[in-house]
Amino acid sequence: MAKEGADMTEETQFMIDTNPRKEPEHVESSGDAKEMRAVVLAGFGGLNKLRVTKKAMPEPQDGEVKIRVKACGLNFLDLMVRQGSIDNPPKLPIVPGFECSGIVESVGENTAGFEIGDRVMAFVNYNAWAEVVCTPADFVYKMPEEMSFAEAAAFSLNFVAAYMMLFEVANLREGMSVLVHSAGGGVGQAVAQLCSTVPNVTVFGIASCSKHAAIRDSVTHLFDRNVDYMQEVQKISPEGVDIVLDCLCGENTAKGLTLLRPLGTYILYGASNMVTGETKSFFSFAKSWWQVEKVNPIKLYEENKVIAGFSLLNLLFKHGKCNLVKSVMDKLLCLFDQKKIKPVVDSLWALEEVKEAMQRIHDRGNVGKLILDVEKSPTPLMASDSTETSEAGEEEEEPEGDNDSKERMPFIH
Amino acid sequence: MAKEGADMTEETQFMIDTNPRKEPEHVESSGDAKEMRAVVLAGFGGLNKLRVTKKAMPEPQDGEVKIRVKACGLNFLDLMVRQGSIDNPPKLPIVPGFECSGIVESVGENTAGFEIGDRVMAFVNYNAWAEVVCTPADFVYKMPEEMSFAEAAAFSLNFVAAYMMLFEVANLREGMSVLVHSAGGGVGQAVAQLCSTVPNVTVFGIASCSKHAAIRDSVTHLFDRNVDYMQEVQKISPEGVDIVLDCLCGENTAKGLTLLRPLGTYILYGASNMVTGETKSFFSFAKSWWQVEKVNPIKLYEENKVIAGFSLLNLLFKHGKCNLVKSVMDKLLCLFDQKKIKPVVDSLWALEEVKEAMQRIHDRGNVGKLILDVEKSPTPLMASDSTETSEAGEEEEEPEGDNDSKERMPFIH
């Protein structure tokens, strides 16, 4: 099967822009109103499966809003989609991306509340990484005036997920403690900020050493992801922590459960440990599934513990909870207006730089959110608030489990 | 090992009062202040392991309150203790029982807030089934004036457990739905009452048919425990339920998880399915442990579901959460004062009738709580609010898994 994958790679190679910078005509804004630029995933695998190309302009159906996209969020999940390391991977080719911000260009029937020209942020079930996207009005939210498009694209998924985990799934209250993996990532930074809205919450953050300087002030205690964080946490808080937020899975599940106080809640909201290299076999999801340690309910009973899973995208697109998410978004926008929370943008990338951006998130080089800036020309530019982090391609940190350095050289496949 | 167990039974037979009614001197209140009557468990196994005997009068240590017991609660867990079907069974002989009500007879040092003569209810880490018990003041609560001793003994464990599961572990809110197994039992009835304090909550109750007439008004939908309740619930609520409360374990865990809505919570708070007959091997706990289906965290992630375990006794006696329980008790006593909740007493039994009472809860004959009334003479008397239920020994319902009817005849071993 790995062999077949390799064959397929060669077969589809001719379709793929291996270096889109050589083709500036794709970079320019499309003058033809029937077409738009978009990032397209042509096959599951490495960075070379992505290219920017022109696609037919979408038009809004009943209940949909058409958005002229200004900025898109890039999440670790997008890497997993690229590799096919998710349950029910989409049919290809597809335009990736689950969130964006922009301006309403037109509306379908039954989209009360939205007008042409509205500045909005939105969830999309794929297709976000494009100049134009249509999505049901249920997934669209008006942006506050003081919010930039980049901030809006960094806001929706991370803050809604962080809020729902802390306050809907767990029940964060005064005096509690929270342990968060990937504390420097988009969700991690949102978690840290939301915890600071509750009095006397202790946040244990785990992140790569390279990020420590940038995020030290956002958490109470910061640990290197390469050290035995269990021992460190237990030294400070022998009775454990109230909430563990884990986007890694694997061995961290058992560790997280062990670290919980009685009545504590462990929440799995991602499985980025499933991504170990640049490419991944089609069987990796199933394999990872079986490798995860199962939990005995009777153990939970004896220890008074709670284990939860949280997938915001499934909640929105499979489980029909858009009204609940809407109410959460309202609360978050209040907190934003009160200047209690503010999305952290790591860096802005042109659509044509999606590979560099993906490499950066793969290498865990980001502090906060990576943004695809649809109107940006392909010259990397770091956001002002992330100057302490290194650029993609300059990473000192070893990507996990991929030992052939030729393979790991960014953008060369 | 089973053989050894049988041998031990014979060895210890001489210790046991097989028919305490023939020895009325044990029934009378003990005039000697240095001694008290108590139920003693001499070995793990059947009803014949229990007897009423005299024991040395306990005296309160530092921080303890000495209570002249009026009434004790009998829980399904007491059966599991008797059989040794729990993790870390106690050293024998022991006086069983985890909750009681009574009058403060004396207090140790550092028991501020309690005075001799106070009417109280209390949790005890074993030893409740006696005329006198000493327990830390942290586990003692003053009774409202309008509460009888029988009600108080029926209140603590069931209502605190039900409240904490609904409002601390899960987050019961307006419009939600709750499925509760053993809806006719003490916790089940407390759950139903607490659900009625929140607007528009749908309660799916599962109970033996024989209890349906007595509890029909307490729940929204009532199902026979012998039918496929999953199908019935899904017919009424295709999207599932928000909270499942399961004291049975076994196959109900997988069913409960399947029935959950996204963001729903399954709580395991007992494992009475582990008790299948009158007696049980010492290995039964370990065996049941391995038979329980383990839960994959990635499945929870994909389905946005929560699984929790809840053991109030571990929370109190192992996990040091007496302050949290105290705050919950305060809220419950407010609800009692407002006449929004009221413990349901199934029946009152003398200490010497503990075997009949245990047989009744084993046969799932009770509606609400079985109470050991310490001052009662051994003549069965049904509480006024439970006249529709049959007495122990007249059960039509088959006890599970124990097919030798001679074995099952109450009190004959």
From TrEMBL, chains A, B:
CDD domains: MDR3 (cd08275)
Domain Enoyl reductase (ER), first and last residues per copy: 45-372
Domain of life: Eukaryota
InterPro entries: ADH-like_N, ER, GroES-like_sf, NAD(P)-bd_dom_sf, Quin_OxRdtase/zeta-crystal_CS, SV-ATPase_mito-regulator
Presence of keyword Oxidoreductase: yes
PANTHER family: SYNAPTIC VESICLE MEMBRANE PROTEIN VAT-1 HOMOLOG-LIKE
Similarity comment: family membership: Belongs to the zinc-containing alcohol dehydrogenase family. Quinone oxidoreductase subfamily.
Protein name: Synaptic vesicle membrane protein VAT-1 homolog-like
Organism of origin: Gymnodraco acuticeps (Antarctic dragonfish)
